[in-house]
User: Fold this.
Amino acid sequence: METELIGGLAATLTTASFLPQAARVIRTNDTAAISLWMYLLFTFGVALWGAYGLLIGSRPVVVANAVTLTLALVILVQKIRHVRAARTKSRPR
Amino acid sequence: METELIGGLAATLTTASFLPQAARVIRTNDTAAISLWMYLLFTFGVALWGAYGLLIGSRPVVVANAVTLTLALVILVQKIRHVRAARTKSRPR
Assistant:
């Protein structure tokens, strides 16, 4: 019983932790310190965790990773926008 | 067999993804866009995942989360330093 409680709390914390980061990125429109590579790798990894959850038939794994994937994509999309905008600015006219 | 491969790749990607973020924070010394709350919650969650791995006797879960915990702590410590430095600056003399 205790083990499942710790696993559930761990999943909740690591999933919920992306909420304040996504909110901050939207509020401040600042992603300068955020690593594009991190969110490219992380988003792909979390999608694979979701597929893994489907394969082993574990609803909590699927749900937790679907939420994390959504939040991570919000951050990734903002970062990609900023990287593109910076490139367009730096291109000679 | 395929399921374990997907799980292993997912764990590798989500763990490795914190390496470019930790490297960027050290290289640029910029954590402005990074959410303190994210890394407080995430670090605690990953530590719980490590404890969960010990309880279920899964070495891969323990090792992957130990690596992620180390990288997340590097980012968290830098962020706390910057938050403290900003507070000291803004305090009236």
About this structure: The helical segments of chain A are 2-16, 18-28, 36-56, 59-90.
